Amino acid sequence: MKSNFRFMRTGILFYIILVFSGCASDTSETKTKPDFTRLVDPLIDTHQSRFDYFASATVPFGMVALSPDTKHGDLWNSGYLYDDKYILNFSHIHNAQTAGIPVMPVTGPCKGNLGIKASKSRFSHEKETVKPGYHKVVLEDYGVTAELTATCRVGMHRYVFPQSEEAHVLFDLGAPVGPTKMLYSWARKSNENEIEGYSVMAPTFRRKKPFMVHFVARFSKPFDEFAGWQKPENSDTNILVEPEENIVKGKGSGVYVSYNNLQDGEEILMKVGISYVSISNARLNMETELAHWDFNRVVEEADTKWNEYLGRIGVKGGTHEQQVKLYTDLMHTTSKRISNDVDGSYSDWTGPQPVIRRLPVDKNGRPERQFFDGDGLWGSQWNLNILWSLIYPEYGNWMAETFLEYYKNAGMMSRCSWGGNYSYVMVGDHSTPLLAALMSTGRATFDQQMAYTASKKNAFPGGIRDRAGYESGANPSGGGIDWYIDLGYVPVEIADRGAGYHRGGTAMTLEYAYQDWCIATMAMLLGKNVEAEMFLDRSENWRNVLDTETGWARPRHESGKWMDGFAPVSLNSRFSAPGFIEGNSATYSFYVPQNISGLIEEMGDRDKFIEKLDSSFTKAQPYRFITPHGEHGTGWVDYENQPSCSMAHLFSHAGAPWKTQYWVNQVKKISYGGTDPYSGYNGDEDQGQLGALGVLMAIGLFDVQGCVGKDPTLEITSPLFDKITLSFPSTTDRKQFNSFEIITSRKNQDDIYIQKAWLNGEEWNDFQFPVSVFLEGGKLELELGAEPNKKWGLKQN
User: Fold this and answer.
1) What's the whole-number average pLDDT of the chain?
2) Which of 104, 201, 543, 553 has the most CB atoms less than 10 A away?
3) One domain for residues 110 and 200
4) Could you tell me which of 410, 335, 330 has the C-alpha nearest to residue 372?
């Protein structure tokens, strides 16, 4: 099913030089306006998604992500869900663990005190327009046409009302939004057309401390009344109240502004600026980013920002659906959210009391980089890290600098960033592969010595590897890093130690070993050769959990004995097999990106390795190479979740690039190819990770090692398009852009096998080529055919 707005083909190529001072923006003039946004469909796979998944009225990485909500209550199956019949509100923040400022325009008597569902409205997709930077929908129960757009930190609303004796705009500031409950809210009428206030978010399972969002809402027309609702003492029911000294406050409270005797078609505009620092900063954000009332101008500016971001990848050829999916994938790679203000201020909640800090600013007072609120990077070495290193380095550096801010502020680099606070999501230190990739590719703009020191700290007791998934508290032990150092692996007994989740010792061992290799690479690049050797030795700890008799990674006791009752896929638990994290031995056995040749040797030889891997894909194909979310222990391959995301590319390393070409094409088409509201990402897009993987599969580039290494390489697979032009900042001058072209020739669209290749005009018979060659700019030409050329890609150039 296609969305209701019209898509248009594009073959236009744009070379864009960007200067980023906040959200994605361009200060240069472009002669031709790009139209990549017409190939984006935000409705893809919205039938059953996470609260932070859907995006419409936002700009790339925008603090404000303004869109309708049809369901609240959890991270999953929350936010905007395609099959729901009612809109509950429009809220301004859609992140995994932060949310807030829900508003709803209504007509008739105010029912805000009766709960957020009491003011819901029917809507239909036939009367809805959705595209990046803009959302339009008719609230059928009220006859109100609502339009939404945004700058980075300001949401803008345009409401067209029917003739109404009374109409209201509700702010249910104390209501639960998405997965987030509110502890307290406060709002004040500041003048005849403005209100201001804040909501205090309650801690969540993943974000252990409260967090605050402040707002200022300004209206284009003075309102006639300001009032609200509160919960009296010893009562469970909110009642409508008149404000005291223009203030309404309390747990579960909310406010509304009223307009009397509106004429049919009367238009009211509203701007809502937000800040995680203060009300005054919310006002500063609004007045800096949106001083005018020209709604259409904001829509056009948002469209320009999106086209600048999407335009770094230009394609010709392929099907219309493949182009739609490519640019929708790219849209989702912007799902991390800026959380600092226009002056660089952000809230640090890592200590006993929150502290307001400020990022470095330029001579004009604008932040030189941004601080993100976003999910972690577990597994991002096979998606976002590669895309950031190649094409979008400034955003990768923003993410890296965010983790390093935690190190500077509180002494330990974070796994993710939710509400300015540590959140020990998943296991290990999955920020280190990003730091290593940016350093390896010459992209790092951060302090590399500090980055190495922070990563090194996390690799020993006292660092973040002490902690299992979501393990908080003063004395963590569920990460097993002490056992990993002493034994060379994390044993089965870790399941009984510590207070966290994801205590799968075999999976921990494999992930820690790869992360050790990343630290070794960082050490080598900094000339720390002795420490590099130590981490290289540790990176071989994967051998300690690979049972060469069975040929599978296997849980091992502290005594050294292999765990009994082992099978490659889960026999009992559907979520994880014992010893593994959201997976099983069938997937984790191939998790040795730092030494694939060593893994192949330990599994027997190349033929046995290929046979084992091929068997897994054959068994997984009837299930579309995925498992339902929460059943990760049951699949032979699971492209719904991170540990599997490199598996199809491993055939190349065993001497069968043609099998990689085949299976990557199958996964892309069957698992990630959908362009309707019921397919495309299989539920868990994880803030851009599957979008980034989809982009890499579509353009035919990858790296199993995550662009980490002293001389990192890129792996070649079969692109979907006839011509791809990648435009990216130069490594020597970030204001200058280089371009790399990938050109394919084929007789039929189904020709997927590489017959010959030429790199910068010279015949190329290796499935890999140096990242450094890519970053200099150039051309890769591929001849594709219907039958595999089993000799291509095997010779070292």
Assistant:
1) 93
2) 553
3) yes
4) 335
A 10 A CB-CB count for 112 gives: 24
User: What are the two backbone dihedrals, phi and then psi, of residue 280, each rounded to the nearest 5 degrees?
Assistant: -60, -35
Pair 267, 383 in one domain: no
Q: What is the mean pLDDT of residues 302-327?
A: 97
**Residue 6 banded pLDDT, cuts 50, 70, 90:** very low
Q: What is the CATH number of the domain that holds 248?
A: 2.70.98.10
| Sign of the CA dihedral with 18 first, then 21, 23, and 28 last | negative
Residue 518 CA to residue 108 CA, distance in Å, equals: 61
Joined tokens for residue 502? 């994801």
Contact 145, 263 (CB under 8 A): no
Residue 224 is encoded by which pair of tokens? 């006639």
CB atoms within 10 A of CB 385: 29
Give yes or no: residues 362 and 298 share one domain.
no
SS3 190: strand
The Cα 24–Cα 338 span in angstroms is 11
Task: Specify the pairing of strand 182-191 against strand 247-250.
Answer: antiparallel
Q: Which of 256, 281, 309 corresponds to the end of one domain?
A: 309
DSSP-derived 3-state class of residue 748:
coil
Q: What is the DSSP string of 148-189?
A: EEE-SSEEEEEEEE-SEEEEEEEE-TTS-BTTB-EEEEEEEE
Rounded CA separation 708/37 (Å): 32
- Final residue before a domain boundary, out of 309, 341, 361: 309
What are the residues whose beta carbons fall under 8 Å from the beta carbon of 699, sequence distance 6 or more?
313, 719, 720, 721, 724, 726, 742
The reported pLDDT for the residue numbered 26 is 41
Kindly tell me if the per-residue pLDDT of 688 is higher than 50. Answer: yes
Enter the tokens of residue 738.
Answer: 């280089």
> Is position 552 within any domain?
no
Instruction: Give me 683's structure tokens.
Output: 């539920």
Range of the domain at 765: 312-428+672-680+687-797
pLDDT in tens, 257-273: 999 999 999 999 999 99
Please check whether residue 449 lies inside any domain of the structure. Answer: no
> Are residues 260 and 142 located together in one domain of the fold?
yes
Residue 269 and residue 389 in one domain: no
- d(C-alpha 633, C-alpha 631), whole Å: 6
Beta-sheet pairing, 254-262 with 225-230: antiparallel
Asked if 305 and 317 sit in the same domain, the reply is: no
E strand residue ranges, 31-142: 67-69, 86-87, 89-94, 99-107, 121-122, 128-131, 134-139
Does this model's pTM top 0.90? My answer is: yes
According to DSSP, residue 391 is labeled T
Structure-token pair, residue 494: 């870790």
Q: Kindly give, in sequence order, each residue whose CB lies less than 8 Å from that of residue 503, ignoring residues fewer than 6 positions away.
A: 468, 469, 478, 480, 494, 495, 497
Q: What is the C-alpha to C-alpha distance for residues 392 and 728, in angstroms, rounded to an integer? A: 7
pLDDT above 60: residue 112: yes
Whether 140 and 252 share a structural domain: yes
Q: Which residue has the tokens 């982009």?
A: 695
Residues 78 and 179 in one domain: yes
Helices 320-332 and 689-699: crossing angle in degrees, nearest 10, is 140
End-to-end CA distance of the chain: give it in Å, rounded: 46
Query: Coil, helix or strand for 497?
Result: coil
For residue 533, tell me if it sits in a domain: no
Side chain identity at residue 753, one-letter code: Y
The answer to whether the beta carbons of residues 545 and 585 sit under 8 Å apart is no
> How many Å apart are CA 185 and CA 202, to the nearest integer?
11
CA distance 527 to 281: 44
Would 171 be classed as within a structural domain?
Answer: yes
* Position 303 confidence tier, pLDDT thresholds 50, 70, 90: very high
Give me 487's structure tokens.
């034994």
Domain count across the chain: 2
Bridge partner residues of 585 (DSSP): none
CATH code of the domain containing 365: 3.30.2080.10
Tell me how crowded residue 496 is: count the other CB atoms within 10 A of its CB. 8
